[in-house]
Amino acid sequence: MTLRMSTLFLRTLREDPVDAGLPSHRLLVRAGYIRRAAPGIYSWLPLGYQVLRNVEAIVRDEMEAMGAQEVHFPALLPREPYEASNRWTDYGDGIFRLKDRKGADYLLGPTHEEMFTLLVKDLYSSYKDFPLSLYQIQTKYRDEARPRAGLLRGREFVMKDSYSFDVSDEAFLISYDAHREAYIKMFDRLGLSYVIVAAMSGAMGGSASEEFLATAENGEDTYVRCTRCDYAANVEAVRVPAPEPLSWEGVPEAHAEPTPATPTIESLVDHLNDKFPRAGRPWTAADTLKNVIVTLVHPDGTRAPLAVGVPGDRDVDLKRLQAQVEPAQVEAFHEADFDAFPALVKGYIGPGALGEKGTSGIRYLLDPRVVPGTRWVTGANLDGSHVIDLVAERDFVADGFIEAADVRAGDECPRCGQALETARGIEMGHIFQLGRRFAEALDLRVLDEHGKLVTVTMGSYGVGVSRAVAAIVENAHDDLGIIWPREVSPADVHLVATGRDAEIYSSAERLSTELESAGVRVLYDDRDKVSPGVKFTDAELIGVPTIIVVGKGLSDGVVEVRDRSTGERENVAVDAVVAHVVRAVERA
Ligand code: ATP
Ligand code: MG
After folding, report:
1. Domain residue spans in the chain?
2. What is the mean pLDDT of each successive set of 10 residues along the chain, which is 588 residues long?
3. 493-587, which class in CATH?
4. Could you give the CA distance from residue 298 to residue 295 in angstroms, rounded to a whole number?
5. Which numeric CATH code is attached to 255-401?
6. pTM score > 0.70 for this model?
7. Pocket of ligand 1 (CB under 6 A)
8. Exposed/middle/buried for 131, CB within 10 Å: 0-12, 13-18, 19+?
9. Minimum-distance ligand to the CA of 204?
């Protein structure tokens, strides 16, 4: 099929849209692929919809190849199944809820574990029916707090979600691996550069999970990779290796000291080196224990403060903290909140005020590095005063540990101890070992070969289909526009006729017919009142991988073939160009 620019529903834009920061967002709008309808909600124009369907086709192909069967659920769902799994509450403000005319509660599906579980329960009852993998490609709805960057984080978006059902854990692992393999093939075909990392399970529950992250400096996710072994993890999932506890024999008693005007770690360290110099080595931020207070807002609306103690040379990473406390949401602890806890002295908060036994009673969790015997300088809960030689376990205990301190390049690999490196990525896919959480909540049990009822083991597997369109552009663009990998491109060839000569247009016309019969998808710029400059700019912006220019060279029997990705240009004889392009298409 040939798309003709003269009639194609398309307006390219010279200017970047004001609300768009990231290249994928700017370019997809400017090149006429998508239009914003509302925050985080986009309409697909003809070229964009073609790309979306190409991505879907690859995803569908690989799901079918691994033996999953396609179904399609409604997006408008009743409350009850989500009530049974507790997610009606756990999702909090994250889902769109609505009522029908009788006042019954509904939601727009954010993901469909419950519905798939119930469908299988409805129809299957014996181990003989398993293994089973089902999937759908569907529009999902999430009222994201921060819709961002166009398609990357939408409030309406397209997801492929699949679910595996098995009667034993061993069988489940086979289904999980099959999905993992299918994802590798899928993301290779999508032309993405990506990494597979250990991930948190979040609101899904379940035991283990992995993410496929498209490597991208604009990605929202940070991951670490070991410089020696094959450890790789989303920073949310990094488990800091806890050091061995230390003996506190001979450590002096804790002593509070005046440290006026030292509300920051930097001012404190300067003051310590000035007034309490230490033999051997100067004080550093790593000697201090920083206590950060946040508010947790639970799904039922209740609010509770949480104190997190981290070595003073590290910050609390809010994304890491958020991942640990889900489904609660982390909010800042405000001035008014301080008023409610007079035991807290801002800038000088110490363990004495924190924890079950502390004067404020605020729940207190420590970084895993704060093991028994470690020795700290920290707030004395008095304005302008800190405690020195405060020893964990000897002088204070907390209510537990939490992984919330930032993870940095150079930190120890939890597996082999070598240095980690960090990079950013866009989460493209997530594969979860759900275990029996949903099957138990919704009572999906079947008879095993001994006639005994067993709970089914499930996996859940997502791919961000609309997000992939944007992630591909993040991976493949230049200053001029998009550079599509061939399989997702809206066409194989962008055929540009330049000039006013009728001969040129009739040759281009003929060429487009020949290309089409050879199975090449053509986008033909047949506009006769548009300048060559504008046509070239549009072609570069739109990003079809091969551009053929039919123009002046025609009198010498040649057309120009341009490679959008490398910028290479070559003259090819008109009679040879179809075969030339077919070869390029087949190579991809
Ligand atoms: P994120 O951490 O980016 O919010 P998630 O953990 O909520 O993702 P899942 O619930 O696992 O994501 O959803 C499966 C896939 O759907 C994700 O891997 C991602 O590719 C895609 N996805 C999730 N939320 C969005 C969104 N708001 N817009 C576009 N795609 C999304
Ligand atoms: Mg999310």
Report:
1. 17-238+422-474, 255-401, 493-587
2. 92 89 95 96 98 98 98 97 92 94 97 95 96 98 91 97 95 95 97 93 65 95 95 93 92 92 91 90 94 93 94 95 92 90 91 91 95 95 93 94 95 94 96 90 94 95 98 96 96 93 92 95 94 96 97 92 95 94 85
3. alpha beta
4. 10
5. 3.90.960.10
6. yes
7. 111, 142, 144, 153-154, 157, 159, 202, 427-430, 462, 464, 466-467
8. middle
9. 1
